[in-house]
Amino acid sequence: MATQVKNTNMLSLEMNRTGQGIFPNHIPSDMLVQVGEAKFPLHKLMLVAKSNHIRNLVVESGVPDLGRIDLSDIPGGAEIFEKVARFCYGVNFEITVNNVAALHCAAEYLQMTDDYCDGNLTSRTYGFLAEVTLKSLSGAIIVLKSCEDLLPVAEQLNIVNQCVEVASAKACDEANFPSRSPPNWWTEEPSILHVTFFQKFIDSMKSRSAKAFTIADAITTYAKRSLPDLMRNHSINGIKSPVSNHSSTSIINQRELVESIVALFPIENQQVVFSISFLCCLLRTAIFLETNDNCKKQIEKRISVILDQVTVDDLVALSYTFDGERLCDMESVRRIVTGFVEKEKSVKVFNCGEFKTIPSPAIFRVAKTVDAYLAAIARTAELSVSKFNGIANLMPKNARQVDDDLYRAIDRYLQAHPNLDEIEREKVCSSMDPLKLSIEGRVHSSQNKRLPLQIVLHTLYYDQLEIRSGQSTPIAQSMRLQVQSDVLLAKENEKLRSELFKMKMYISDMQKNQVGATSSKPKKMKKPTLFSSVSKTLGKLNPFRNGSKDTSNIDDGIHHTQLRKRRFSIS
């Protein structure tokens, strides 16, 4: 802005004239100009010399001494007309980015063009617009802001369109190639605009193929600045209603503002461009201001896409009034969770999977958040059984690995509603599976007097099954180990049996050879040897003939000559 101020001062110096050009004050005025409530006693000659419009008024009036004209329709009002009159009198004044649009519109209104008088006000203001204000994002936005009170003249003179095009082009450049930090500093500039001009700004950015994230940043900043009380905090702890003392007109204006902001959302199905916190704040504001259904559903649809990022506080804030004293709405939460579950199902079908088998990690996170949400609102007096179950049953059964969080919410609800009968308590517990409780949960529920008897019995029965299963498992493992040991022992026995059989055959062959040698020399007795003694000893160890200690009983298919039993001794 330093360069702009310098240029402004230079332009002001060019417009400055010497005191000789100023009409003497001692000459009485001959024309009274009425601008709204303000009156300007001026001189007809000075005005007619610069303004063709005033000249036409004087001529068309048919009164040579016309002494009064009404210029209440002049753009910018009395403040701008005073500067125009200074220009007509040659008195110095300053053109700035804040008043250049109004001065240009007033100059066009008064027909102060160069065709009528050289170096007139129109060319001066247009040159300032082109050379100073439309060279930067800030200058274009400030001029655009000033045009809000100059409609429709500013649009007819193309000032609005020029400012919008320059501002959107500069914003896109800054978004792609930041010139300062933080990178999104530029989003603060258009946030001062009226929503009508902000819509034009966003539409122009879209026409330049701006990224969805870029547009989302601008919308987020604009919403937070335009609705500071509603978007500042969504906690339910002791916040006073931000518009409790406002008129119905103010609420209507804010409602239209929220609907206009939501209508600007970029259509981007594949990307998440808004944060979950911002969407929840905006939805809460839409619920509070009672916007149309389409507006709320658009926000809910975007929340359901990223529901796995939501916190418990976000969901709780959607259900309560701003003071946190009353549960006002649960339908939005129900639609959001339903939309998320349907999305997960469609993703499974698209990937040729089955939703009931392996839920995604996102649905586990959402189920945990929903159970915590139920626990947070369980103590609310106006929460009915049907509403509680309506939220609890939205999640599929396989979305919860354990039902401890849901059990905690049910226990809190039963504690806060002690007057429920047995049937109503069973309805509350119908969404929980007692078999999916952890050991700690089953121990607690088996001693919980608030639970219906049927649930307690289910829990105790499952505990007995667990106990039995826990006792049989070590026995089964011991039996498997015993079988493995028996198999190894049988293999070792079979190996030993085979070795003994080979030894038996070897001994039998040796005995056959010994019998043949004895029959050829009957008269000569062979002296017993060490080997024969060993063979007899091994024969006594024969395990194959019913415990017999004589190897001669082995039937090997060979006919032997029966030898006379002799007594041998080992020397």
TrEMBL record:
Keywords: Phosphoprotein, Ubl conjugation pathway
PROSITE patterns on file: BTB, NPH3
Pathway: Protein modification; protein ubiquitination
Domain NPH3 as annotated: residue spans: 184-466
Keyword Phosphoprotein carried by entry: yes
InterPro entries for the chain: BTB/POZ_dom, NPH3/RPT2-like, NPH3_dom, SKP1/BTB/POZ_sf
Start and end residues of each BTB domain: 29-97
SUPFAM superfamilies given in the database record: POZ domain
Family to which this protein belongs: Belongs to the NPH3 family.
Name assigned to this protein: Root phototropism protein 2
Origin species: Lactuca saligna
